[in-house]
Each structure stands twice: as structure tokens, then as C-alpha cells.
Automatic annotation (TrEMBL):
Keyword Membrane (UniProt): no
Protein name (database record): 2S globulin, Glycoside hydrolase, chitinase active site protein
Keywords: Glycosidase, Hydrolase, Signal
Keyword set includes Nucleotide-binding: no
Amino acid sequence: MMRHWKLFLALVLFQAYATQIFTQAAVFREYIGANFENVRFSDVPINPNVEVHFILSFAIDYTTGSSPNPTNGKFNVFWDADNLGPSQVLSIKRQHKNVKVALSIGGDTVGSKHVNFTAFSVDSWVSNAVTSLTRVIKQYNLDGIDIDYEHFNVAPDIFSQCIGRVVTTLKKNRVISFASIAPFDDGDVQRHYMALWKSYGRVFDYVNFQFYAYDKGTTIAQFLRYFDTQVANYNGGKVLVSFSTDSSGGLKPDNGFFTACEKLRSQRKLNGIFVWSADNSKASGFSYERQSQALLVKAK
Ligand SMILES: *[C@@H]1O[C@H](CO)[C@@H](O)[C@H](O)[C@H]1NC(C)=O
């Protein structure tokens, strides 16, 4: 009898342990701060039963001021830091234990020109980026990084070495605890990110694939096919689905985005949802964010 109790106890403990290891909460992520719409973390609904990541947009390795120039990896803050500063980050994380905050590097434009990934040499770019990003991440009490370069002055292999080495170092130094990449369906973009994935895929926790960069009027069937294609491209990665609340394309919430999510959920493929962006959602009150989080609670 005693022996059975011990076996029972061992099974219960194993069960609890296994649940902890194998049940990874679905994640909700939202870009914030790029458009200076005075949006604050506290404006965005936060469901306590989902992991929520805010992604500050953007830190860029360009000079600030009227004619931005590349700085070879010395990052500056380009997001709305008046509304999204260090004290606001601390405050939202204190109020909600399920919230983490990351920064995204790169972005599409700086001062209405393209942000071009530019490095004088791999070693110098990596050294400057590690130093400057560590400073910003500590100053702002951040937890993670997202890679969102969309235009390139360097070959895929150079981009891969620069980004891969920086993210590896920041993780090893425990400056960040998670990292993601944000590619989209474009030949040059995919060449750069897939080179990065091939050499450094293991240091990335999420693939924020920009499904809203597909054509306007994307159907549910097309969306599900695109998802499978990107899961194959970023083999072994946690590919997250996404929609935008600005005028860009893809499958919109009103056209069946959540139906597609339900389908993925039933196939246990719904790892999480991210939104571009809080700045654009502010005017209409974040109803799709609420709906996304409610759906993700069921996806756990
Ligand atoms: C990035 O490169 C493009 C194409 O070469 C150029 O038109 C643009 O001005 C560059 N961006 C910046 C900020 O200089």
C-alpha cells in the first residue's frame, strides 16, 4: 500500500513538471510607439491569462536629426519615448505580471527614407550594437529584442553574422530573455532572414511573420497556405500570425482573420498573434486586441 502511495505521488509530481515544461502559453504581441499617436501601454487591454509582449518601435542605428545617417551599429531611440519611457515600462510590468516589453530594431523608414541595414565591418557593427543596445535595454527595463530590418546594403551572409552574433551575445549576457525576427514575403527580405535563420535560428524564440504585407483581400484559404509556407521556411520556429490595424494588406479581422486562427488552433498550430500597431488601433478602442487575447486564452 505504502509503495502505491509513493508511486502515485511520483506520478503527480511528474505530471506537474511535465505540464510546466510542455504547456507554453500562447503569446499576444503588439508593436507600439512608431507613429507618435500618444498611445500608452495602459491604453491597451491586457488579459491576465495570456503572455503579452509590447514591442517598442523602433531603435535605429541612424543619427537623429533632420538628415539621418547610418552609425555602424550605434542605436538611438526613435519611438515615442515621452509616452513610452522607462518609468512607464516599469509601471506596466508591475501592474501586470504577464507583461514583458521588447524593442524592435530597424523598421521601414527613418525621416521618410528607407532604413538601410549598413555595416562598415561585422566586428565593428557587432561591438557597437552590443554596447548601445545593452545601454538602451537596461535604461528602459526591457526584456527582449525584435529584428525588423526591411532594406539592406549588405549581403545576406553579412546581415546574418551581424544580427546573429549580437542576439547571441545579448542572450548570453542575460541582457535579454527572448528574441524574434519580423520578415515578410519579399525576395530580398526572405534571402536575408533565411540566411540568418540557417545559421542562428536557434537563438530566436518567435517568428513575427508580417502576414499583413501580403495583398489586400487575402482570403482565409490563401492565408492558411501562406502560414504553412512560412512554417516550412522557418523550420522549427514558432511562427506567429498577424494582422494590421493600419491600411496595409493581408487578411483583416473583418474578412476572416479570427476564423483562420480558430482553424490553426484546432490543428494546434496557433502559437500566438501579433498586431501592427497600437498607434493605429487607438482611435477605434482596441476591440481586435481584446478578441485576439480571448482567443489565445483558449489556445493554451
Ligand atoms: C537607403 O537606400 C535607398 C536606395 O539606395 C536610398 O534612396 C535612401 O535614401 C537610403 N536611406 C537613407 C536614410 O539614406
